[in-house]
Request: fold
Amino acid sequence: MKKALFIDRDGTLVLEPDDYQVDQLEKVVFYPGVFYWLSRIVREMDYVLVMVTNQDGLGTDSFPEETFWPAHNHILKSLENEGVKFEEILIDRTFKAENASTRKPNTGMVLHYMNGEYDLDQSFVIGDRITDVKLAENMGARGIWLNNDPGLGGDEMDSTADLSGTLALVTQSWEDIYNHLKQHSRQVRVERVTKETAIQVNLNLDGSGRYHNNTGVRFFDHMLDQVGRHARIDLEISAKGDLDIDPHHTIEDTAITLGEAFRKALGDKRGIERYGFYLLTMDESMAQVALDFGGRPWMVWNADIPREKVGQLPVEMVEHFFKSFSDHAQCNLNIRVDGTNAHHMIEALFKAFARAVRMAITRDPEHNELPTTKGML
Ligand SMILES: [Mg+2]
Reply:
């Protein structure tokens, strides 16, 4: 799914003049840092850019068209020269008192981004007014408030309390916006509920190895913790399943949901390494995992693990876990484990998998292309 940044113009891309109307070239002063940081956002992340701006009374005597367009075109051209190009520019020309459906925070101009084609949960409205954050709220997107107008009083501040679920960041700096988007651009939450299980996965591929996993199968939790730590991702899994029958559904559905979370978080896979491989030893065991997030599920399994269970984990479910993950993350997994101690063999395998994942999901911002000659993955 596509993601978008809905960006305000005045007070956000250019500084707001004293009279709140950019109607002369001399009034165009770009927001500090906007060229550098916004062009990095464009280069390194996969957002579609949409400008959404209220221009009170544009085309009336109070704001004649011929005073608007030279400044506006100058702004667009200057940004375009730095690689910042807007997919669409949406301008509302009404006055506040009209309360038009097209005027921010109303959604009249952006309805075509709300029809399911865009992942709004992963999209942001960036602007210098609370109305921008309210637009985010009304769209089901997230809001970034560039709070740079000292003239805005406590009232605006107070009204942010109701918007805490929407407001992702309050800052005066485009560098902070870049860092926030970079940190969260591969963060997803996926839920899967069936009659057998209810699974929640919170995953951040750009995390720091924090984990909190609770499936009710302790040894399995311990293995998922290894994935979080050794892949250096943030991983939180909560699974409630029909353990009174056996752990089969819980482990299988956790793998399915985790696979879906990876597929979603990887997005269009632009700039990732794609391939990962690791050879890892643990006491007498040796595990080898090769992985390809190439979009085609496949699994090769070469492991003959002794014992039927380790803790509450049925050993046969280890293969099933990786097969289900491969199917739903749409990756190729080639796995080999040698050894004699089942606990060591399984733990070595999960750690080698995690290290291979870490390699494959690494992004190189200087080479932000698709790792394929096919045009898509
Ligand atoms: Mg503004």
Notes: The mean pLDDT is 93. The two ends are 13 Å apart (CA to CA).
